[in-house]
Specification:
The chain is α/β, with parallel strands linked by helices. It contains 21 helices and eleven strands. Strand 10 and strand 11 form a beta hairpin.
Length: 505
């Protein structure tokens, strides 16, 4: 299965495990809730999907890489306890609480989250001294004498033996107590994640052309050569920061993340070409509906790989704008709920509006802190909360400046400020919608009813922010082409054509 299917399977399993009967007992008893085991090659996103699952289900997440643990840190340290049996006193070995189990309790104490995921990575690569204890843990969810708290699901991950010489094979007895999922790399699935994360457009257009370079592990005379999804993601982050600071992105940087000489070299060449296209094509003019004839003519005459790069540049620019609309919208939703609470406060005689706002700011700050500690807060939600705090600070300053006489007057000022933000959001969304339409109009004029429009529709469909914007605000051109092109039927054909392409140096 791919990583998206694995994520869905984990969410379904957790939904089942968390189900309780009328008396508050788990319908599947704790001892029969099989730990989930994700088996797959390194760097395909096993850890990332656990963070997504925790955030989407609103449960806690405690993660550990088991290769870093000794028997003592996993089981706890021994100490001598005096006990009496049959009237005779004996010295008995006891163990302190495992660092891993203690971390779960710490999470519960700090955040108030009672259910969550204990994620143990590289579980089949533990040291020889720890291996027997890990097998016991997988069967009974116990380290030493301390159990994983009720309500916490155990999820583990490991690499197949061909990727890691330290792998220890489990016996049938152990496998029979696990819920095993074998995960394989899948570029199309990763691409959905990539759009939401904002992976560099050069990486996405390169991989659209050379999908086989997405994930590759080879053994050569010089040793292991590999490229992973993690490598592409980390490279993207570094490329964007290099560009921000005016630092040259070259083959030496690329090779630090893509540890395959051929792929690193080819991508570095493509990146230079991509930047040339970025300089030559005036994407902002295209989205403004003012593309000059010279640009249109060049695009018409361009080879398919250049057209793909241009589409990548257009999609990168437009999805960035659609993302901004989504984040502002999310902030407004957060503010709306807060102002409803403030209105109730201000209806009470003698309530200080500024004090009410400061109380809500404090609640938001605690929400961020708790969410980050519990790994239940997505980056978008955190951004919306921090933006809401900034807006509330501005509203607090507004009340200080205007000094309203009463609660009703104070609320009217806050409502007016909120309404102004809503109007600005509508204007921003309208502008983004026009620019999205202009992208379609440009492609219609330049490429006709060809595969480029199919690609544009398909990419907007799988893009989180593209699909969200269109579902909320609509886009006439998108719906027209979505229907006319029958893109689901033709998508495989286009993908096959793309895969046949070779980059030109």
């Amino acid at each position: 299965m791919n990583i998206k299917e694995a994520k869905e399977q984990i969410q379904n399993a957790m939904t089942a495990y968390f189900t309780k009967d009328d008396f508050g007992n788990y319908k599947i008893p704790i001892e029969r809730q099989r730990p989930i085991f994700l088996m797959g090659p390194p760097g395909i996103g096993k850890t990332a999907i656990m963070e997504q699952v925790a955030a989407e289900l609103g449960v806690g997440l405690v993660s550990y890489s088991m290769t870093h643990h000794t028997r003592q840190s996993a089981l706890g340290l021994p100490f001598i306890e005096k006990k009496v049996y049959g009237g005779q006193e004996y010295s008995v070995s006891e163990y302190t609480m495992s660092e891993i189990i203690a971390s779960v309790y710490d999470m519960m104490e700090k955040t108030g989250v009672k259910e969550g995921i204990l994620f143990l990575d590289e579980i089949n690569c533990v040291s020889e001294t720890l291996a027997p204890a890990m097998l016991q843990f997988l069967q009974y969810k116990i380290f030493g004498r301390h159990k994983v708290p009720n309500g916490w699901i155990v999820v583990t991950a490991g690499n197949p033996p061909e990727y890691n010489n330290s792998v220890r094979e489990f016996d049938i007895v152990t496998w029979d107590r696990l819920k095993r999922m074998d995960v394989e790399p899948d570029y199309d699935v990763w691409k959905e994640y990539a759009y939401k994360k904002g992976i560099h457009a050069a990486i996405l257009t390169y991989l659209d052309i050379k999908k086989s370079d997405f994930y590759k592990i080879e053994t050569t005379v010089d040793g292991k050569s590999f490229v992973t999804a993690r490598g592409w993601s980390d490279l993207s982050d570094m490329m964007m920061l290099y560009e921000q600071h005016g630092i040259v992105v070259d083959e030496m940087l690329v090779a630090q993340y893509l540890q395959n000489r051929k792929i690193a070299k080819e991508f570095a060449i493509y990146y230079d070409l991509f930047n040339k296209y970025k300089s030559d094509y005036q994407v902002d003019e295209i989205l403004s509906g003012k593309a000059p004839d010279t640009i249109k003519t060049r695009a018409k005459e361009a080879k398919f790989d250049e057209r793909l790069a241009l589409l990548g540049l257009i999609l990168d620019a437009i999805t960035g704008e659609l993302k901004k609309v989504s984040l502002v919208e999310q902030t407004q939703t957060e503010l709306l709920e807060i102002l409803k609470k403030v209105r109730i406060d201000l209806a009470k005689p003698g309530t200080d509006g500024k004090a009410s706002l400061r109380m809500q700011i404090g609640a938001l700050e605690r929400k961020i802190q708790t969410g980050k500690q519990a790994s239940t807060m997505s980056a978008d939600t955190e951004y919306a909360c921090r933006s809401a705090i900034a807006a509330l600070d501005g509203m607090t300053a507004l009340l200080s400046e205007k000094a309203p006489a009463g609660g009703k007057e104070a609320f009217q000022l806050l409502k007016a400020a909120f309404d102004d933000r809503t109007k600005a959001l509508k204007k921003q969304a309208d502008n983004a919608g026009r620019r999205l339409s202009n992208a379609f109009i440009f492609c219609e004029e330049v490429f006709g009813e060809g595969q480029e429009l199919l690609i544009l529709v398909t990419e907007l469909t799988i893009s989180f922010y593209g699909a969200r914007f269109i579902s909320r605000y609509g886009c006439k051109e998108y719906f027209n082409h979505n229907k006319e092109l029958l893109f689901y039927e033709r998508q495989k054909e286009i993908i096959q054509e793309i895969e046949k392409l070779e980059l030109e140096e």
